[in-house]
Design goal:
This protein is mostly helical and 128 residues long. It is built from five helices and no strands.
Length: 128
């Protein structure tokens, strides 16, 4: 009898703190708020790609700087879980725990797409 391969579908729904976007909208106006969110999402996407590359080439110092920046940026647009997991990754890197780093980085990657999509979608819909 052969071994059975189990496949797990990992997915985490993004948590969006809409009050952050509302504050941005009230202080900047609809158009500028949308522009700021688009810019932050662009930077988050770019830093996620750079983070993955830093982890793949084994550069923990660069990865820690990028994870810290991800935490700051994601808080600005109301992504508290994304920010928390980014900070968790910083801790794992600081402790030089490679297993935890790999697990937390994988979780951050899984959460990133839904988080970025959610913030863009909410910003667009709430402007209507």
């Amino acid at each position: 009898m052969g071994a059975e391969l189990l496949e797990f579908a990992f997915h985490e729904d993004a948590v969006l703190d809409t009050s952050r976007i509302l504050v941005l909208r009230q202080s900047l106006g609809d158009q500028r708020c949308r522009e700021v969110i688009e810019e932050v999402v662009y930077h988050l996407t770019d830093r996620m790609n750079l983070l993955q590359a830093a982890l793949e080439r084994g550069d923990p110092a660069e990865a820690q700087l990028l994870a810290s920046r991800l935490a700051s940026l994601s808080e600005q647009v109301g992504l508290p879980d994304f920010a928390r997991i980014s900070r968790d990754l910083c801790q794992c890197l600081d402790m030089d725990d490679r297993v935890a780093t790999a697990a937390v980085a994988a979780r951050l990657v899984r959460l990133s797409e839904d988080s970025l999509f959610s913030v863009m979608l909410y910003a667009d819909q709430s402007a209507l």
